[in-house]
Automatic annotation (TrEMBL):
Membrane topology label: Single-pass type II membrane protein
UniProt cross-references to PROSITE patterns, sorted A to Z: PROKAR_LIPOPROTEIN
Spans traversing the lipid bilayer: 15-37
GO cellular component, as recorded: Golgi membrane
Recorded GO MF terms: glycosyltransferase activity
Domain of life (superkingdom): Eukaryota
Protein family membership: Belongs to the glycosyltransferase 47 family.
InterPro entries per UniProt: Exostosin, Exostosin_GT47
Ranges where the Exostosin GT47 domain occurs: 62-395
Lineage: Eukaryota, Viridiplantae, Streptophyta, Embryophyta, Tracheophyta
Protein name: Putative Xyloglucan galactosyltransferase KATAMARI1
Compartment(s) of residence: Golgi apparatus membrane
Amino acid sequence: MEKPISVKLCNNQQLWLVVLISFVSCLVLVCFDYSALTSTETDVTTSLFGPAIGTQTKPRSCFGRYIYVHDLPSRFNQEFLDNCESITRGTNSNMCPYLVNSGFGSKIGDSQGFLLNNSWYSTNQFLLEVIFHNRMKRYECLTNDSSFASAVYVPFYAGLDISHYLWNVSISVRDSSAKELVKWLIDKPEWRRMWGRDHFLVAGRISWDFRRQTDDESDWGSKLRFLPESKNMSMLSIESSSWDNDYAIPYPTCFHPKTDSEIEAWQEKMRTQKRPYLFTFAGAPRPDLDNSVRGKIIEECKASKKLCKLLDCNYGVTDCDNPVNLMKLFQSSVFCLQPTGDSYTRRSIFDSILAGCIPVFFHPGTAYAQYKWNLPKNYSDYSVYIPVRDVKDWKAGINETLLHIWEDRERVLGMREQVINLIPRVVYADPISRLERFEDAFDVAVGGILDRIESVRRTIREGKDPSVGFADGDDYKYTFSGYVGET
Ligand SMILES: *[C@@H]1O[C@H](CO)[C@@H](O)[C@H](O)[C@H]1NC(C)=O
Ligand SMILES: *[C@@H]1O[C@H](CO)[C@@H](O)[C@H](O)[C@H]1NC(C)=O
Ligand SMILES: *[C@@H]1O[C@H](CO)[C@@H](O)[C@H](O)[C@H]1NC(C)=O
Ligand SMILES: *[C@@H]1O[C@H](CO)[C@@H](O)[C@H](O)[C@H]1NC(C)=O
Ligand SMILES: *[C@@H]1O[C@H](CO)[C@@H](O)[C@H](O)[C@H]1NC(C)=O
Ligand SMILES: *[C@@H]1O[C@H](CO)[C@@H](O)[C@H](O)[C@H]1NC(C)=O
């Protein structure tokens, strides 16, 4: 489950590659008329597919939505930013540039028009905790009086903290901040109100990084989430573990819109893209992971010739973290393949949603078991599921499966419309201004955790034990049972 801080970024260096890719794709387009795959029809109504997602009106009243933010000593958050060079220990890239603009990184201009000017940034995928905190500082229902608060936010930068120590052998060094943090928290009057069950943390790395189960030095990560106090709290992060008090919310992408109309302009752009490829994969093989489907996917993509476009993310081949490269590719494809990577999830899921490219999942842990607040319950509405339980049983035929789905043009366009409607729910809007109508990923996450805490409060009011089902391990969470493929 190791996911080192390999810095996956949206830097903007290899523009010449884009030019090369454009050239290659132009050749493809000139030689083959794939007009069957090129569709700009947008007349399929979403009503066929249930109520449109992402168009709900935002709650106006703060009743039941007040949040108290703990004023933690700066060693738990700000100091990591002040000493940003040290976060990068063990990698050869510098994290400091990615901390500017509320944690969004620097702005990206794009003369080719694949992005919208002024709302794309070189955002590091591991900076959710900084982005979330900055957004929370402008949350409309903050309170300084914790007795009014429905939830208590603990702005500890757990991911930046552990990235200092990921390669440090000493267990006591790795766990030291976590232990200091809970010691600080339980001394506060807010703790005793619900024994921490109304507290939540937000981390920019996968939850497994905080779930070290033994004190064996070769074991990965910290023990933060197994400390008794921490078990009483909830944590939101880019990938949840199999324990019930961990919740997944979207990875930060590079798109941080300021206004509703910017989102609508982007959605409209995605509705009218020409999509010459049936499917696409951006990624690298994982030859050292025995059960990885990536090798098979790459083989099939190559064998499918003009139907599939591959963006090889092997070191040095293409800059897959440059959103210009990724958006250009994903905007030109109907389906985007999303196999597991080093862990179950990948930021690419959200890049494909941004591009209006229907994601194809191979494992329920990649999205369905994760982003329950942000993505629709009925996964057939917005995605294709081709379960691969064991790569040894791999049956070739992604191309035929997708061609078959593509025959039902109305269904595919309905799915695409659902994907496009999801865009506001998976972006972290710029806190400089406020979205009026759309709920973004932050709003959805805050709504989700407030509901969760409210149900715990209800349990306590009813005199029941709130620990039942709160932090249990769920062995089935990432198994295939319960997610039946429909294709
Ligand atoms: C976006 O910015 C680039 C420079 O970064 C400029 O060349 C281009 O014309 C701009 N596009 C629009 C639509 O304003
Ligand atoms: C909380 O208190 C601080 C310092 O007294 C003040 O600056 C801030 O505006 C207050 N915030 C709210 C939401 O009342
Ligand atoms: C581990 O952390 C300690 C305390 O910060 C530090 O002195 C030591 O050099 C670190 N070791 C490694 C291998 O990073
Ligand atoms: C966790 O919550 C339970 C009540 O649900 C409480 O009895 C226990 O003391 C709490 N643990 C800590 C470390 O505060
Ligand atoms: C689909 O992929 C297989 C390899 O998995 C290949 O043999 C076949 O030609 C492809 N079909 C099409 C229509 O591209
Ligand atoms: C889920 O959506 C698909 C197509 O979008 C539909 O056929 C199916 O009936 C839905 N399932 C449920 C349980 O609503």
